[in-house]
Amino acid sequence: MNVQVGKSAKPSGVVTFLFTDVEGSTRRWEADPELMRSALEAHDAVLREAIEKYTGWLFKHTGDGVCAVFGSPRAAVDAAIAAQRTLE
Description:
Layout: E1 16-19, H1 25-31, H2 33-53, E2 57-61, E3 66-70, H3 73-87
Antiparallel strand pairs: 1-3, 2-3
């Protein structure tokens, strides 16, 4: 699934990928599906916002994570840090 986030152009040439995953998601789904559904919606919104802010291109949802590409390593790291800080 190709999903563009924001108005940034899809990076080309040398790029940096960001892959995320929710640790222990299977166990969390089994323990409380409704809470996990809500948490995953919030997670996805936070990731979309961080990726857009740092001009990344979200190109795939993996169920409990995302795959994005950035034009620079710094942008990818900044997006990951921003998302992690918000999620904590």
